[in-house]
Design goal:
mainly alpha; 6 helices; about 0% strand; Non-specific lipid-transfer protein; signal; Plant_nsLTP; Bifun_inhib/LTP/seed_sf
Length: about 120
């Protein structure tokens, strides 16, 4: 009988821990990534001068993607968007530095986003 009560108490404690545990924040979406970088599209495709709103978007995206899951999701979105929008990877790789932002990984087709922190 005592073991039955102890088991029920242990189950109740486990359920309470699961319910009270902080939930992981949802990762940034590809739609958000694209919206941040849309002002950069002409530069990313063709080079040339960087529109002022572009660097604001780069800084905004960098601020929005602070957690490792967000950075990994943003990396995957950047790679996918680069293919979809036919971006010049050299321009993409140079963009953060030209906007004075360090993102901690290179924007390239072969970047392993699972290793981004």
């Amino acid at each position: 009988m005592a073991s039955s009560v102890l088991f029920k108490v242990a189950c109740l404690v486990l359920i309470c821990m699961l319910v009270a545990a902080p939930q992981a924040a949802a990762a940034i979406t590809c739609g958000q990534v694209v919206r941040y970088l849309l002002p950069c599209l002409s530069y990313l495709r063709n080079g040339g001068p960087i529109p002022p709103r572009c660097c604001s978007g780069v800084r905004g995206l960098n601020s929005a993607a602070r957690t490792t899951p967000d950075r990994q999701a943003a990396c995957g979105c950047l790679k996918s968007a680069a293919r979809s929008y036919r971006v010049n990877y050299g321009n993409g790789a140079a963009l953060p530095g030209k906007c004075g932002v360090s993102i901690g990984f290179k924007i390239a087709a072969n970047t392993d986003c699972s290793k981004v922190h």
